[in-house]
Amino acid sequence: MKKYFRTNLTVLFVFLSISTILDSCSIVPITGRRQLSLVSSGEMLAMSQQQYTTFLNSNKVIPSTDKRTVMVKTVGINIQNAVELYYRQKNLSLSGYSWEFNLVESKDVNAWCMPGGKVVVYTGILPVTINETGLAVVLAHRDWPCHCRTWRGTDEPGIDFTVRQCGSFRTSFKETC
User: By three-state DSSP, how is residue 61 classified?
Assistant: First the structure.
């Protein structure tokens, strides 16, 4: 009897586990692929806002009057407009997005984005990107995973835009301009 009970309990546990996993799967709006979503979009956006605010409060944000910040915000708004247009054309929703583009003082060659349109550019990347076009390439690269919902998966949310990548980008970018 104990063996029968243990076997049934095991089968029930496996069944419930599989059901939970399948129920947690969702379809990524842009790519159409399925992914496991243990955190809702609303929860992810709330956590993103909290972490973004914490980061900005603990780092030196360059004032909005600085010409470098104006460039970051201009490029960011252009990307925002393009993403919003694309979503409208595909009848997709960006509900909960509250776009922000900030420039932070740092020698690091990096830029990143969080779900909900929270974008940070480090001053260290600006000499590498050279101008608005170069910055747009970097921000589009950083920003896209957030809109494809890859921040829930493993596609690349933790990969930094490394110095070597930026160096090769700068070389190829100079040759085409």
Answer: strand
CB 116 within 8 A of CB 49: yes
pLDDT tens-place string over residues 117-162 = 899 999 999 999 999 999 999 988 766 555 544 444 333 333 333 3
Q: Which residue has the tokens 């393009």?
A: 82
Instruction: Classify residue 97 as left (phi > 0), alpha (psi -120 to 50) or beta.
Output: beta
**pLDDT mean over 102-129:** 94
138, amino acid identity: V
Token pair in block for residue 152: 């829930």
Residue 97: Cβ within 10 Å count: 18
Sign of CA dihedral 125, 119, 148, 145: positive
DSSP assignment string, 1-27: -HHHHHHHHHHHHHHHHHHHHHHHEEE
Give the β-pairing of 34-36 and 25-27: antiparallel
φ, ψ for residue 112, nearest 5 deg: -150, 165
Q: Give exposure, 128-146, as e/b (b: 16+ Cβ within 10 Å).
A: bbeeeebbbebbeebbbbb
What pLDDT is attached to residue 97? 87
pLDDT number for residue 49: 92
Chain centroid to Cα 73, Å, comes to: 17
